[in-house]
Fold:
Amino acid sequence: MGLTHQSTGSAVAAGELKITKASPEDKVIALAGNPNVGKSTVFNALTGLNQHTGNWPGKTVTNAQGKYAHRDKNFILVDIPGTYSLMASSVEEEVARDFVCFGSPDGVVVVTDATCLERNLNLVLQILEVTRNVVVCVNLLDEAEKKRIHIDLDELSLQLGVPVVGASARAGQGLQELMDEVYLLTFQHKKTFIVRTDYGPALESALSLLQQAVEPLVGQTLDARWTSLKLLDLDDALHQAMNTYLGYDILHDDAVRTALDSALALLAENGLDPDELRDHIVSSIVKRAEGIYRQCVRLETPSYNSRDRKIDRILTSKATGIPVMILLLALIFWLTISGANYPSELLSNLFFTLEDQLTALFHHLDAPAWLHGVLVTGCFRTLGWVISVMLPPMAIFFPLFTLLEDSGYLPRIAFNMDKFFKKAGAHGKQSLTMCMGFGCNACGVIGCRIIDSPRERLIATVTNNFVPCNGRFAPPRKGKQRYCRVPTKKKKPNQLYL
Structure:
């Protein structure tokens, strides 16, 4: 994905995102971060109404651009999709990776969550492999303070080698300081220094070998070390994006091809085959993030989240996660279906008793049979039947579903199911909308808005209609008669309209 600047107008051409610049001095800033870290809050607070949205070239993924003036200079902020890693596994993550790696932004602001900084540092370290023009925004400091989490921002900046700014975007705190650092980085070329992740002797030797062949080809266009790392762990989408950006296939170079074969052979000798390489890279990044976190963060109550971690080991474990999910959902369905019997029966008796009273009233008024058929047998009986059958299960199911949401279990369901839904080209969040569909398909379809990708959201919207909501459940039997069945016993006034 290329980034094209133009002085007037804005358009999206094939393979590149065109961004309008009022003057050549305008700076394009990518706003990156994990999902739900307040990235969009930062974007909206800075740009206000000076923003517009569109689609990424060739992708049904929404992008948002906004303008912000600071110290008489213009900045164009591009809110890229939230991602946990540059090792893309979805369309949104590919878009985020391609814009950071190949979009040539003048700077990257990485928004992190102060309450779970250790996890967010994984993305920060990966972006620092690509570019040094980075400012880290540690957001949600107010929430961290409530949890008695203290972050040494100066030490964090020293460990990362780039500016770090604390903020509470919802309260508007720290945003001016953030833009001050962005200004210094982009206009005054504030010095940053490289902090490399150590991948171990074997991989470092392989990278050094390959980097010697790659560096003359990429020059200043791409970071040679990062390019070498990606050539060792190359996927088709990244290969295509890299070729588009460079304008040629780097693997067609004989020197690179020879160095790559030698590097892979060296890794194989040290027990790192291609299937294990990515796991090794990820574990190295995680260990580095853990080390930085221990040096920069102090917890007044170190065990503040120990209970959550213990619960997570059970709820998200490969061995117990799926069985626990099935048992919990089965319990909810049983409570919903069995528990709805009694209120449904009461409502059914109430409505059909009222129907008999209305029939007697129509008989007393000598109303024509067709009017009784339309208003009583048609409208009222249908209304009574729908309320009797659907209201009690919904009144039980949705409060129980809300309890799961408030307890934080629903995101864990999405996490457990994501791998299976990915195999079908869908998103793990769809498991939540499908569960909601058992209560009501309309609510399940509306809930699909939590899925960011328009393509995956459309898949969820279409397929959720096949979930049997409680209105389609076969009503339980009570003896020989269903609780919601219209009484077959007719009183005399009712017989006049048969």
